[in-house]
Amino acid sequence: xxxxxxxxxxxxxxxxxxxxxxxxxxxxxxxxxxxxxxxxxxxxxxxxxxxxxxxxxxxxxxxxxxxxxxxxxxxxxxxxxxxxxxxxxxxxxxxxxxxxxxxxxxxxxxxxxxxxxxxxxxxxxxxxxxxxxxxxxxxxxxxxxxxxxxxxxxxxxxxxxxxxxxxxxxxxxxxxxxxxxxxxxxxxxxxxxxxxxxxxxxxxxxxxxxxxxxxxxxxxxxxxxxxxxxxxxxxxxxxxxxxxxxxxxxxxxxxxxxxxxxxxxxxxxxxxxxxxxxxxxxxxxxxxxxxxxxxxxxxxxxxxxxxxxxxxxxxxxxxxxxxxxxxxxxxxxxxxxx
Length: 338
What we know:
- The protein has 338 residues and is α/β, with parallel strands linked by helices.
- An eight-stranded mixed β-sheet has the order 8-9-10-7-11-12-13-14, covered by helices on one side.
- The longest helix has 18 residues.
- The relative contact order is 0.15.
């Protein structure tokens, strides 16, 4: 696949699907050729909105469409296993929204399926594709702040969300952790990898999902990562990385930062700013470009968002849920034992 446009299918028609598709159609080397929803009416309305030629009223037909180079799965995460699995079984390449699945067991099933079928699979962790986040990671990896001692990241929304909202619905994998906490955990693991120990506490709703969660991740090096998420309080959505010789501060929006500040011992602070063209949603286009680059290169996964890293994040999310007592309907031994 070199030179021609990459043909995309969109599976789901909700807000995230619309946001991604709006950015995708602006890319000259991308073409959205099909969309699927649970109902034909919803698929047709979405297709008309974005000028998409084909609309399907079921997921299976999209999965069987051999005219597609890749399918973007944007269902609620409780349906990711089924939706992405249908596409992978049919031999379609897949970009699947985050959180990748409800739990690590489902994630392992999808990764195993993709590897057996020899098709591309990537979690839509757009933060990892952001140029400024990549710059931050490279500076830290190159020793700009010495050995990492601690990482902090938080993501909170003020709410309040009513009990009927999907963020409060156990059937849809509701709660702060999977929707929002996946970002702080992924940021910490981008820099430190998978923790060796996890301690966590949550405030739970009457429905049994977490309204806010804090976790402390420990590493063999002695480094610690503190992560926090909330759907009952707006937080700075900030992050920091402290090392033996300095610190990096991301004051706001660490998952699509417009700048960060590098503090090195004995030097003046250095500010690194995003390209003016990289607005809050440009990271979605960087994500799409990375998928298309990998497909043209014949790669089965992205080095920016490796599948083993996705599995590691899912194991950490499982460990946090196990410690705070959150399980979703239909889960048996779905989460990592404490």
